[in-house]
Task: inverse folding
């Protein structure tokens, strides 16, 4: 990899480092951000963990931090932001063109802690990002419902909904209800 400079202070270049045993990356000596090439990551992962268990985003994503976006130190374009889907909700910055992941200080440790360190390819996939978005919409909708109805009514609404969703004539029933409002 050519010499890359960090954006935290002018002219601070990334040094070689080991993110974890056998995983080479680059680290900024000033802000401790790390740059990880997906090629190096995949080699490390496939060598040490030939079998990776399936994973799902956390059921309830936590509060999201809003750190500023990063520019790719290699091509200077703005990096994409990807929700990790961990309970300790944070974003990964990734440049698809250069296949470089930017990890702020502590983010790799956070990935390891939440069992996502082996799942970078999954996190950066369209499917994973869509799943998290859907979960967020659902929990937002739940919060709205809880504001509008008392607990007893909510339980009843959910029971009826589950029954309806499983019913083969769901559409007809909904139509009937709508016609008889
Ligand atoms: Zn830096
Ligand atoms: Zn780039």
Result:
């Amino acid at each position: 990899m050519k010499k890359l400079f960090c954006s935290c202070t002018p002219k601070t270049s990334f040094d070689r480092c080991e993110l974890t045993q056998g995983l080479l990356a680059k680290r900024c000596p000033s802000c401790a951000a790390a740059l990880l090439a997906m090629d190096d990551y995949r080699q490390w992962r496939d060598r040490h963990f030939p079998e990776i268990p399936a994973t799902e985003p956390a059921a309830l994503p936590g509060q999201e931090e809003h750190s500023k976006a990063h520019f790719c130190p290699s091509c200077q374009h703005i990096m994409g932001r990807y929700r990790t889907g961990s309970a300790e909700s944070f974003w990964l910055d990734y440049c698809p063109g250069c296949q470089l992941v930017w990890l702020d200080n502590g983010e790799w440790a956070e990935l390891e802690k939440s069992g996502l360190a082996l799942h970078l390819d999954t996190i950066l996939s369209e499917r994973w990002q869509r799943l998290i978005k859907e979960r967020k919409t659902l929990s937002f909708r739940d919060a709205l419902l809880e504001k509008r109805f008392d607990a007893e009514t909510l339980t009843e609404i959910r029971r009826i909904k589950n029954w309806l969703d499983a019913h083969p004539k769901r559409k007809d029933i909904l139509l009937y209800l709508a016609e008889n409002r």
About this structure: Residues 6, 8, 12, 28, 30-31, 33 surround zinc ion (ligand 1) (CB under 6 Å). The chain has six helices and eight strands. The radius of gyration is 22 Å. Strands lie at 5-6, 12-13, 15-20, 23-27, 34-37, 80-83, 91-95, 100-103.
